[in-house]
Amino acid sequence: MDTNPSQGYGAPASQSSNDAPTIFQKFDSYPWARDRSFLQGLMATLGPSLASPNDGFVRQKALSTTLQARIWWYKSRFNSDIDRSAYEAYSASHASSCPDGAILATLEEIQQRMGAGNASASSSAGPPVPAWQLNAPKVDLSKKAEDATGHANSDGGAPYPENFQALIEAVTMGKPIPGIREIPDTVVRPPGVTPFGKMKAPRKPWEKDLPADAAAQASIFGDVVDKEFPPLP
């Protein structure tokens, strides 16, 4: 029967400098490597830092992040404040009891197991397939062969739709295009229609002294404008 890893590791909210070593011992002895919720949150926080265990700067940063995460987790679980400066001074002389290195080793082991599981699920040939691609739904994006039956063009390229194939055939062979009306290019003039309307335009203010009869109007245009439409050829 599993027991709660947080039992027996709490500390009061108020602490004095005299009992600080005892508080730090309880803080270090908490089973961090067995607290699944803490490990999951820390792994998400560290991210790519776990992939470079041999980089000294990255490793030191990961240890600092782990300590800060432990202080925050301990405060949220047990309402106990851990003075980071005092703890770092304490851990300098008690390096063997500091669990930060062991926690990172546990996370690295978990990450290696996860990577091995993804690698076994992927194909042995070619580069490794990302996990999101392995879990993506499989959709058939290829066009079925029977869908293109009767629509292939003469060049063996992409198939044409039926209506487009008929249009191409009509244009190339000079046949009438389906759905196109043939309109003759002739103009029909109704009888009684002349270039000049029957109604007279109203006079402009400066045209009051000009003659208004048809003869006067005809004299203005002269022979420039035809009085009747010329016959069609």
UniProtKB/TrEMBL annotation:
Residues 1-20 are annotated as: Disordered. Signal peptide: none annotated. InterPro entries: HTH_76 (IPR058841), KPWE_PEX14_dom (IPR040554). Residues 23-94 form the PEX14-like helix-turn-helix domain. Residues 159-208 form the Peroxisomal membrane protein PEX14-like KPWE domain. Pfam families: HTH_76, KPWE_dom. It comes from the Eukaryota. PANTHER family: CHROMOSOME 10, WHOLE GENOME SHOTGUN SEQUENCE (PTHR36855), PEROXISOME MEMBRANE ANCHOR PROTEIN PEX14P N-TERMINAL DOMAIN-CONTAINING PROTEIN (PTHR36855:SF1). This is Uncharacterized protein. It comes from Trichocladium antarcticum. The lineage of its organism: Eukaryota, Fungi, Dikarya, Ascomycota, Pezizomycotina.
